[in-house]
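Regression test attached.
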Amino acid sequence: MTTAPVQAAPATVARTARTADRQPGARLVTRDLSACYGGFVAVRDVNLVIEPRAVTALIGPSGCGKSTVLRTLNRMHEVAPGAGVSGSVHLNGQDLYAPEVDPVNVRRTVGMVFQRPNPFPTMSVYENVVAGLRLGGTRRRRREHDDVVEEALRGAHLWHEVKDRLRRPGASLSGGQQQRLCIARAIAVRPAVLLMDEPCSALDPISTLAIEQLLASLRTDYTIVIVTHNMQQAARVSDTTAFFNVTEPGGPGRLVETGPTARMFTAPADPATADYLGGRFG
Amino acid sequence: MGTTPRLDPALATSPDEDASRQVLGPAERRGDQVFRAVSRGAAQLILLLLAAIALFLVWRAFPAFQANTASFLTTTAWFPDQDPPVFGIAALAFGTVLTAAVAMVLAVPVGYGIALFTVFYADRRVGAAAGFITDLLAAVPSIVFGLWGLAVLQPHLGGLGQWLNTYLGAIPLFRNDSGLYTKSILVAGIVLAIMVLPTVSALSREVFVRVPATHVEAALALGATRWEMVRASVLPFARPGMVSAAMLGLGRALGETIAVALVLSAAFDVSWQLSEPGGNTFAANIALKWNEAGPIGLSALIASGLVLFALTLAVNVTARAILARRARFSGGAA
Amino acid sequence: MSRVETYATAALVEDALRGQRLPGWAAPAAAGLAVMTALLLAVATPVDGVAGTAVVAVLLFVGLQTAWSVRVEGRRHAVDRLATTAVHAAFLAAVLPLLSVLVTLIAKGIRAMSGEFLTTSMRGVSPTSAGGGLYHALIGTLEQVGIAVLLAIPLGVLAAIYLVEYGQHAGHRGFARAVGFVVDVMTGVPSVVVGLFVYTALVLTLGLGRSGLAASVALTILMLPMVVRSCEEMLRVVPDELREASYALGVPRWRTIVRVVVPTAMGGIVTGAMLAVARAAGETAPLLLTTFLSKSVNADPTNGPQAALPTFLWDQIASSTPASVDRAWGAALVLVLVVTALYLTARILARTTGVKR
C-alpha cells in the first residue's frame, strides 16, 4: 500500500496494513456476526477473536458455516447475489462493514487463498504474482515489480522452483505449486491478514506438507485464518481452534467454542466438540 | 460490489436488530458505476433497436395503407404506384407460406436425422465432420445458394417435376398444366430447405447432446435397440427443443430473401401447383421491386415488410417460449 | 449332477446372448444387390437417369434389408436397421448439395478469375462484354463490414458483459432477462426487414442518403445479436473462482471484468465475433435496400452509392448474359473465399488468443 488512500476510513484500514509489518499485527474481532444467502441463514451470532501473528483454525462438519464466516472477514461473502451480513467485524478497532468502508480496500488488507488453486489462466507466473498490484491500479516501476515478485515467491516457498520459468503460464505449474503461487499472489499486495479456505483439500499429501510448512513461516508476519476439514491439520498448524456446529438440518451454523488448539483437542468444554474431534460425527 | 447485501427477515428477528444495516452503501467505486452504466446502456440499446424497427416500419408503412384503394389483405395484385393504387399481400402471403412449407417438409426430417447421426450414430470423428459440414452449409452466403439453385439445381428438377405430374398429377400440388418446370415454388422450396437445414440440425444437435447419459444408458441396459433407445429416451426429452429448432428454421425460411428472389418467377398469383413457374414471397418481392418503386410503392413494400416482421416475430417468440418453458421444467438454464 | 447343470446354464446363456443376428456382410451385400438390380432396370425399363436409378437403388436396398432382417432377426431389429439407414441418408442429404455447391463454385469461379478481375472495376464495361472486375465491390465490402465490426463488437461485448456480470443481481434480473429474450428474437428478424428499417430510419428520416455507411449500420444490427449471444456464452463459462480470486486481491469489479474475465474468454469471443462477421459479409438483401449498385470505385462509405460483393453478384446474375454470369461465378467464389478466410481466422484465433497453455 504505497498510494495514499482517498477516503478517510479506508485510510485507517490501510494504515493498519502497513503497521502490520511491525507490531502489534492485525486483530480481528467479530460481534454477533450473522450471514445469509437469500433466505437461508448460513451462520448466526458468531463472536470470535482472531489473534494477530497466529494461526486460527475454523473447523466443524459440512454446512456449519465456517467457510461463510471466513468469507465475511474480507467481505467476499457479499459477492454472491442475495448474500447479506449483520453484526460487525473489527480489524484493529475499525469496523469493516462501516458504511464508508470500501470493500475493495478491505480485500487488499485481508487477503484470501481459495480451496482450489485458481491462478489467472491468461497470465504468466510473474504476471500472476503482480496481478493484485497491476489490476489494483498501483503503478510501479518494473524493478519494483521484479523485487515484489521475488519476495512474494520466496515468501511462498516457490522461488527456487519457478525462478527460471517466470514467463511460463501460471496454469502450467503443478497443483501444489499453483496453490503456493496463489499464496504468493495474495501476499504480494502485503495484506495484514491471510484467509485460507481449505487450501490443501485439492492437493496431494506432499504438496499439503509444503503448504503446512509455509504456514508455519507465514505466521510470524501475518494473522492467518484457515478453514479445514482435516482435524489433524488443524492440530498441526494452528494456535487457536474455533469449532462450529450445526444442530438442526437446514438451520444456521453456530460457533460452539474456541480456545488454544492444545486445550481444544485434549479437554474441550463442550461435549459436541469432543464428539466431533473424537470422530463420532462429521 | 455491485450487489447490495440485504438482511433477510429471518435475520432481522435476531436480537441485534439495531446493529443490522445495509452494509454496502456509498462505497461503490466510481469506475464500477461508470462501467456498469455503459454496459447497461449497450443492453438498453438492443431493446430500443427492436422497438425502433417496429415503430419506423409502422410509421413509414402508413401512407401506403392510406392510399390503397383495395383490400390490403385479400388483393393479389401489386400496383401501388398507379393511380389509384391497388395492392395487397394475398399472393405474397400465400407464396411465402407455401415455399416455407415445402422447405420445412424437406428440411425438418433431414435436419433431425443429421442431428441424430452426429450425436448417436456416428463415431466421434465422423460426427465432428458432420457438424463441420452443416456449419459450412450455414456459412455459404444465400446469394451463392440462389445462383447455384438457378444454374445447377433447377435444370435437374425438370425430371422430378415431370415424374410427379405423370404419376401423382391427380393431386393438385403435383399437377403441372403449363409444361414448364422452371422458376417454381418447388425449386425455391428445395433451395430454402438446404439453407435452413443447418439451423434445424445445429439446434436439435444441441438438445440431443443435453440428453442425460443416464437416460440413454437406462434404455440400453434394458436391452433396447439403438432406435428404441432414441424413441424411449431421446425424443421425449428433446421434443420441445426439436419443435423450437423447427420453428426457428421456419423463421429463417419465411424471411429468406435473395435465394428465393433469384429462383422464383415473382408472379402475383395464387397457385397450388408447385412445379409450375410462379410464386412470390414477401422478402423476394421487396428485393425485386425496391429499385423501381415510387413513393407509395416504397411505402407499400415497407408495409409488406411489416407483415413479414410480425410473422417471423410471432414464430420466433413462440419457439423461444417453448424453450423457456422447458428450461423452467428441467430447473436449469437452457 | 452339477456338471449337467453347468452345461444347461451355458447353453441357456449362449442362446440368450447370441440370438439370431444378420452377419456383418449382410448390409453391403444387400446394397450391392440393390445397385445391380437398379442398373439392370435402368437398361431394361424407361426409369433411367442418374437420379432415378439412385432412388430405385435406395428403395431396393431398404426393401431387401428390411425383409431379410425381419426373417432372421425379427421386427425390432428390422426397424432399428431402417432407422439407421434413414439417419445415414439424412447425413448424405446434407453432404450432396454442399459438395455440388463447392464443386460448381470452384469449377466455374476459377474460369472467371484473373488479375484483371480482381483489380479493375466495372466502370465502362457493358453487361454483355467480357472483362471488368470486382475491385470496387471488394473495397465496398471491406469498408462496410469493417465499420460494422467497429460498431457491433464493442456494443455486443458490452451488452453481454452486462447480461453476465450484472444481470444476476437483484434489481437487474428482470431487465437482463428481457434483454436476453430480445437478443434471441433479434437473431430471427429477417435481414430484409433490417434493411427496411435502416432505410426508413437513416435514409428517409435522417436524410443520410443511400451509402456504404447505411449498409454498415444494417450489418451492425444483424451482427449484434450474434455477437451478444456468443460472447455471453463465453463469459458464462469463465469460472467464478477467477472473479473471486481477483476480488480477493482487492481489484475493483470493473477491472476484474476488463483484465481477468474478458481476457480469459477472449478466444471464444473472437471466434463468435468472426462467425458473425462472416455471416454479415455474405448478406445481400439489406445492402440492396440501403446502398445503390455502383459500377465504379467509391472509397468513401459516407457518401453516395457503394458496391459490395453480394450486390455485385446480384447485379451480374440479373444481367444474365454469358459474360455477366461468368463474372457472377467469379464473384461468388471470391465471396465464399472471403467468408471462409474469416471462418478459418476465427478458428485459428480461437486456438491462439486468451488462455495460455
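Expected vs. actual: identical. Chain B touches chain C through 98 residues (CB under 8 Å).
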